[in-house]
Amino acid sequence: MSEEKKIELLMKVIDDVATESELLEFEQLAAADAKLNDEYIAMKRMKEVTDSMRFKEMPDSFWEGYWNGIYNNLERGIGWTLVTIAAALLSSFGLFHVFKDFFLDGNISILVRLGVGIGSLGVLVLLWSILREVLFARKRERYKEIER
Amino acid sequence: MVTKGILSSYKELTDPQLAELMQRGDMKAFEVLVERYRQKAFYLALGLVGDADEAADVSQEAFIRVYRAAKRFDTSEDFFGWFYVILSNLARNRIKKRQVRAAHVRQEQADTDAIRHRQSRSNPDLLLEADETKKLVWEAIERLPYNFREIIILRHFEELPYGEIAGLLDIPIGSVMSRLYYARLKLKTILETANE
Hints:
CATH class of the largest domain in chain B: Mainly Alpha
Distance between the termini of chain B: 62 Å
Number of strands of chain B: 1
Largest sheet of chain B: none
Number of helices of chain B: 10
Strand content of chain A: under 5%
Shape of chain B: globular
Largest sheet of chain A: none
CATH architecture of the largest domain in chain B: Orthogonal Bundle
Helix content of chain B: over 70%
Order of helices and strands of chain B: HHHHHHEHHHH
Mean pLDDT of chain B: 86
Structural class of chain B: mainly alpha
Largest interface: A-B, 38 and 50 residues
CATH superfamily of the largest domain in chain B: RNA polymerase sigma factor, region 2, helix turn helix motif
Oligomer: heterodimer
Distance between the termini of chain A: 28 Å
Mean pLDDT of chain A: 89
Strand content of chain B: under 5%
Number of helices of chain A: 5
Number of strands of chain A: 1
CATH topology of the largest domain in chain B: Rna Polymerase Sigma Factor, Chain: A
Radius of gyration of chain B: 19 Å
Low-confidence stretches of chain B: 114-120
Number of domains of chain B: 2
């Protein structure tokens, strides 16, 4: 009998889901295989202990607050999303005007304007690069979690 | 009164019907799904993360993610199966973060302090009528790698049949039995080492 079949039989017997014939087959195998018999005794004992283990019941107040916890979190999530969108819109508007005024100001040297423009472009490229790396890492991490 | 009436009529709906309503943004349908599965979700999370506060966080976060991703759910699939994948991934991440924190502590503190910290994570007080043997077994379960611990919780604590475990973990029944075997073998080794 293959090792895989033996394991399946052992698990079925321990979990009390083996048929009459499987039980008989296991008894014969265990009688001839001391290692299998030892594993059966130890695992059956562990199963008996865990079968009698139960988690403590949570108080009613815990369940009463459970839904509120979820609802409040969802509500706050919506609030934060709206605040973030508003902040992004307002800062884009503000930055656009600051840069427009700065670049169209003839009193500022063209070299300074060029320097600030190139510098700003560099900052944008750096930010984009970091953002892309973070998003890429998160995507890869998510795949790592799924061990199927 | 009216809300209670609506809720009780929603309670008669099946999971796919509630999931469809939830996809249309129906909060009451979502509330009924939460009420239907909150206990199962919490106790599963408790078994996986071993801490009541963290289990509440993880299970509530899983429900929030379900609501946010409702539109992506295929209503012909099993709702709890989909929910469980989210819950399990959150629990796994929580444990991973805890291990990273413990590793930092180990680097910063002396060995004895680190051992004390690691031991403090084990919480046999969660168990009802926990005698010495049960405490020992629970501590051993907490030391199992995540995949082994998960299958022990599903089979020993939730008492799910092989077929249901196979559905939740998306693996064949043969793999459920083999994973269960290696998990029990590892548990046996941990207990034997603890007894020496």
